[in-house]
Amino acid sequence: MRKRINRSVLLVACAATIWTRPLSPRWAYCSASPEISASSVVSVWRSTKSALVQRDIDYDAHGRLMGVDNFDTSEHDLLVKLGKTFGAGDSQRIQFMINRFYYTDDGDYVQIYGNRPLGLTDSGQRGTPPGTPQNQVMNQQSLEYHNDALFGGKLLIQLFRDSQSALNPATIDASKQDPRIAPVGTLLDQSAVVSAKKGVRSIYVLPDFLLEGVEWDIGTDYLRDTTEPQSIDCTSRLRPASRIAWISTCVAGVIVL
Predict the structure, then answer these.
(1) b/e 132-143 (16+ beta carbons within 10 angstroms → b)
(2) Phi, psi of 197 (to 5 degrees)
(3) Paired residues of 60 in beta bridges
């Protein structure tokens, strides 16, 4: 059996195509389920994890309330994995994963900016912040297939989807006031970004093909990404939404010493 000490690329050939098109805790609870395995020929694996976190306000060593950014928030996270191993010698496996994460500002405090000459740090006080409280939502799903005994090599194929939305904090920006819309000093500036990604990843690893001691890696990836900035109750100058599709193929020979 050869001992892998170093890897150096012998041959690499890659091709990529890209095109774009613009478009007009204070307390916490966690739980996890155990893994479950069945017979030696067919095994089923399951994992479920969840978390619920509530963060309150923190205070510094002088008893002064610290800045409210990333405090006074709630979040929950759910992760589920289901997998099944099958085939001769358990050489094949299929697995599904889903993950949802949600984060939001509870909206019970407002920011008070510090003053460097006076030696005051950022702080906060009870109050209702302007606009809609900032929040973030992420949803991820993937489906994987593994085969560790395919024509002497190993194959991995993954299909995935990822959607995210993030709402930024609202501010009253002096540079973005327009008296035609609202009285000066009252116009809110708040923006959000919504994105969706989906694609396929694949790689096939074949050792000792044609040349002993050379491991060949062959892979193809595809990604489609749509990102759309949004303006909410404001006059933010936003870039147009974009759609990007990306394909890459790579063949690499790796010397195994």
Answers:
(1) bbbbbebebbbe
(2) -130, 145
(3) none
